[in-house]
Design a protein that fits this description.
This protein is α+β, with helices and mostly antiparallel strands. It has helices at 8-12, 127-132, 139-149, 163-173, 179-198, 213-225, 233-240, 244-255, 259-277, 282-288, 294-305, and strands spanning 5-7, 15-20, 23-30, 34-42, 46-55, 59-64, 72-79, 82-86, 93-95, 99-104, 109-114, 119-125, 154-155, 159-160. The strands form two sheets. Strands 2, 3, 4, 5, 7, 10, 12, 13 and 14 form a nine-stranded antiparallel sheet that branches. Strands 1-6-11-8-9 form a five-stranded mixed sheet.
Length: 313
């Protein structure tokens, strides 16, 4: 059966979108083809889209120069098939469940085939931000960086996604944090997912350990004194002169935890001190350590200490 084709212009008329701050959702409904549900997040240099389809048949959407060709794209399928066609005279590349691929470079025309029952994660990253993650000292990352800066079309072959990738991808969405903590958490998980996917380009030789030890110790000391600050991975990397891949990898290697969880732990420890030593209410303490909703704070506090905040009042 021939796959029906729809232009992007027509495709867009069937969306009903809602957006709040950085987060959005969109429902696509067609009387013949079925339904598509999208949820999205926009961070400073990253856009994430999770697409879930419930269609009566596969559907191809043609994009004529619509997508900004500047972005670097990472795509991963949780369930169902999704097809990509880079140029209408090219072969269709089908990504099956438990696979991923990444690409960058100009594409004047392309098509996407949405499978009938699809769950797909797509991440678009600003190229300048992306190349800032890559280490000039490693040949594989230097070559990738050059391709991106020269705007050469680069489409990696489909590859199997590991259990670690799926675990990290699911954690992007599954958190009850708010404000700057939520942004930091999601950003850190996206960088972690990209690192896991790019690891297949890295030679098998292990890097020497200890190279970043002094930097990581200084970073942790800084966070111990500034854990209430509005930090991002990028700002910390800029301040301490290290790229994000190295920061995430070396901080975990040295301290057995992530930057995000270290900040969260210090905030909760401070919250416990405030609950014990001051007259602040649970809500006031929650707001002080970055939680807008006291119930979310209580859940995180109970998970860490095994007792509710009210038990300390």
């Amino acid at each position: 059966m021939r796959i029906p084709v729809m232009s992007f212009e027509e495709f867009g008329t069937h969306f009903d979108s809602q957006r709040s701050d950085r987060f959005g959702s969109a429902d696509w409904s067609h009387p013949v083809w079925g339904h598509i549900r999208k949820r999205s997040v926009r961070l400073s240099n990253i856009r994430i889209d999770h697409t879930i389809t419930d269609l009566n048949n596969d559907l191809q959407v043609k994009y004529d120069g619509f997508l900004a060709s500047q972005a670097v794209h990472h795509c991963m399928s949780f369930a169902g098939n999704i097809g990509m066609q880079y140029g209408y005279d090219k072969d269709l590349m089908i990504m099956k469940p438990n696979q991923f691929r990444y690409s960058s470079g100009p594409r004047e025309a392309y098509g996407i085939v949405y499978g009938k029952k699809l769950s797909n994660l797509h991440i678009a990253i600003d190229p300048e931000y992306y190349v800032s993650l890559l280490d000039e000292g490693e040949d594989w990352s230097k070559q990738l960086k050059q391709r991106i800066l020269e705007r050469r079309l680069f489409i990696d072959h489909l590859a199997p996604a590991s259990s670690g990738m799926f675990s990290t991808a699911s954690q992007i969405w599954e958190n009850e944090l708010e404000g700057s903590l939520k942004k930091l958490y999601m950003e850190s998980k996206i960088v972690e997912l990209i690192a896991l996917q790019l690891a297949r380009l890295q030679p098998s030789t292990k890097p020497s350990k200890g190279r970043y030890d002094d930097v990581m110790i200084s970073l942790r000391e800084y966070l111990d004194h500034n854990f209430l600050g509005n930090h991002t991975l990028r700002s910390l990397c800029r301040q301490f002169g290290v790229n994000e891949f190295a920061l995430k990898k070396e901080f975990r290697r040295l301290f057995g935890t992530t930057v995000f969880h270290h900040i969260l732990s210090r905030r909760l420890e401070y919250a416990r001190q405030l609950l014990t030593d001051t007259d602040k209410t649970v809500r006031e303490v929650a707001l002080t350590v970055g939680y807008r909703h006291a119930n979310h704070f209580s859940a995180a506090f109970t998970k860490k200490f095994g007792l509710t905040p009210r038990m300390l009042k």
